[in-house]
Amino acid sequence: MGKYYDKLMEDVRFVEGISACINCGTCTAICPAASFYNYDPRSIADTVQTRDDAQIEALLKGEQIWYCGECMSCKTRCPRGNTVGLIICALRSLSQDLGFFVESEKGRQQLAVKRTVGQWILDHGYCLYMEGVGTDMHPEQGPVWDWIQKNWTPLFERMGANYKGDGPGILRKIPEETMEELREIFRVTGGMERYEKIEEFSKKKAGEMGLAFDDTNQCEYFSNVYKYNNHKHECR
Amino acid sequence: MIQEGKQQLWKDYQKEIADDRYFYVRSCVRQNFFPGSETTFLRIMREELGKDVFEHPCHTTCTGIAYHGDVVPLDTAMTVVARQFAMMTEAGYENLVPSCITSFGLYTEILETWHHFPEVEARVREYLYKATKRDFNIPKNLAHASDVVFKFRKEIAAKGPYRLVNKETGKPLKVVEHIGCHYAKMFPHKGVGGAEYPYVLVGMIEEWGGEVVDYPERRHCCGFGFRQFLVQANRGYSMSCSHKKFESMEPYEPDMILTNCPGCPMFLDRWQYAIGEMEGKTFGKNGQGIPVFTYEEVAGLVLGYNPWDLGLQMHQVDCEPILDKMGIPYDPKDKYRGKHGNEMGIPVQPEILKAL
User: Fold this and answer.
1) ipTM for the whole complex
2) Distances, alpha carbon B254 to alpha carbons B176, B220, B292, B295, B356, in Å
3) Closest-CA distance of chain A to residue B156, Å
């Protein structure tokens, strides 16, 4: 077996995700990503089951594995019960562990995901913490979002929230002891190590690309990975 | 579609939903975008139905959005979820009810993984003990909050003064439903009605007097796609998925869209604004959008709750057309007031998507 295939087999999602794909293409037919990107989940399953290191390394360093939306529609219809979405989860994990993710435009975006939803978990105990995140980062939210942001505290009071309060309730303050437990879970289980690797490999790549890099979301590299699209990914 | 065949399929996918004593875990997305829906769920469960729903102040995110954004490793996500189970166990509850579909899908995936790989469960128990000194029992019953509202849909209908019926014509409102992908696409037997013909929202619509409208892209994803929305450069994916759904449902002239997932109502609401601005295209009547609702919002309307306490003013697509059709009285001036009557100003109106 190839070394990358062996690594993938250590991930239960990969073990559950593929069992002798018959290349019927049903996953590609149902896949929302395949209707938008130049993406073919059938070929992902086909490539990994070759167990060929060169082909799998190309996947790990390429754009394809980042096109999936992990909606898992592929699971519902596959006649073999395979799930390309789970194979993708395993490939993305391995790509980040090995630092290969920075070799693709879409892979480099992991820094933006880490510094937004990833960091909000460690800072607030929530995946999303949207006060102050305005229509500059999310223009699609529209003028109602500007109004919500402007009236956040009185509006959330009317909605019955316990915003930043003690005890239970919507957007309550997560107690510091709980936050410390959460951070300790990240330390013990490899979550912190994953975050550190994303930062470390991103910083190195920023140097190679000649883009300024610091720990803010305003730096040149963050702005690049968050906004840049070469428009060669989409179906035409 | 042959109706008898459809009904047989639904019968094959019934799930057990606990009757009382729920341990409720909140949704990160909904707390930010639809806080009124979670408040309404608890109000209905506790005040209308007299159920015991407990929320532990020390529960946290399940990490689901970041897990599916692939920055949080599986072991980390499983251990955070194990901690939620520990909270439930310590509080003396056995029935877990997540508000979030991503959470529900993640909990389901984890429990299935542990069932097939017991050594993984053992490893997670060691991780949790090492990090927190806690232990846990596996929930006896796992049901999404929409499952619970589905279970009590008849009681809600019996108590509610309003129906999903046009008061002028007497005809049922035409409703398209959208089920969150992670409700049942991964594990069809864990959802009411399965993945192909989910019944969880259909049951509510039918019981509350509406007419379910089928349309070709009914099961297509709303387009969240986690990293596909979270990163600005990828949002074309997200918008195109919703666009595909709107084009597919438009010929059927639905009165409203009903959803059971945290992100879906936000995307289906906001993308109507963005598509309007980008293409000059709207999908409702008279240049308006198609109003989008959560199931709690609609349950609240059926029960006669003040629409502005439900949070309908936080939608970009105005919901008043549905209130008018259902004959629900409302004070337009109250829409933009705070809890104590304080004025909060009004949002700027979109250029294309018509407001009232």
Assistant:
1) 0.98
2) 6, 17, 11, 16, 18
3) 21
- Locate all alpha helices (DSSP H) within B152-281, ordered by sequence: 153-159, 181-184, 200-207, 227-230, 235-249, 263-279
What are the C-alpha distances in Å from A105 to residues A32, A54, A63, B158, B234? 20, 20, 7, 55, 11
Segment B107-156, tens digit of pLDDT: 999 999 999 999 999 999 999 999 999 999 999 999 999 999 999 999 99
Determine phi and psi for A42, rounding to 5 degrees.
Answer: -55, -45
Starting from the edge strand earliest in sequence, which strands make up the sheet with B292-294, in order? B211-212, B174-178, B256-259, B292-294
Per DSSP (E only), the strands in A114-216 are none
The neighbour count for residue B260, using CB atoms within 10 Å, is 27
Distance between B267 CA and the closest CA of chain A, angstroms: 9
Report whether pLDDT(B11) > 70: no
pLDDT band per the 50, 70, 90 thresholds, residue B12: low
> Which residues from A are below 8 Å from B308, CB to CB?
158
Across the interface, whether the CB atoms of A170 and B31 are under 8 A apart is answered yes
Alpha-carbon distance of A180 to A18, in angstroms, equals: 37
Q: Is the pLDDT of residue B99 over 80?
A: yes
Distances in Å between the Cα of B295 and the Cα atoms of A50, B257, B260 are 46, 10, 6
DSSP letters along B299-326, please?
A: HHHHTT--HHHHTGGG-SS--HHHHHHH
pLDDT tens string B280-325? 999 999 899 999 999 999 999 999 999 999 999 999 999 999 999 9
- In angstroms, how far is CA B43 from the centroid of its own chain? 16
Out of B132, B241, B338, closest to residue A181 by CB: B132
Nearest CA in chain A to B68: A70
Q: Global pTM?
A: 0.96
Inter-chain residue contact B270 with A33, CB threshold 8 Å: no
CA distances from B75 to A35, A192, B124 (A): 32, 12, 7
Mutation to test the B interface, candidates A136, A189, A225, most B Cβ within 10 Å: A189
- In DSSP notation, B41-87 reads HHHIIIIIS---EE--TT-----HHHHHTT-S-HHHHHHHHHHHHHH
CB contact under 8 A, A189 and B127: yes
- Averaged pLDDT, A187-204: 98
Per-residue pLDDT tens digits for B165-180 = 999 999 999 999 999 9
- Residues of chain B with Cβ-Cβ distance to A191 below 8 Å are 72-73, 75-76
**Helix (H) / strand (E) containing A215:** none
Chain A residues touching B57 at Cβ < 8 A: 166-169, 172, 175
Decide: residue A38, CB within 10 A, 0-12 exposed, 13-18 middle, 19+ buried: middle
Distance CA A145, CA A219 (A): 25
Q: What is the mean pLDDT of residues B251-268?
A: 97
> Mean pLDDT across chain B, nearest whole number?
96
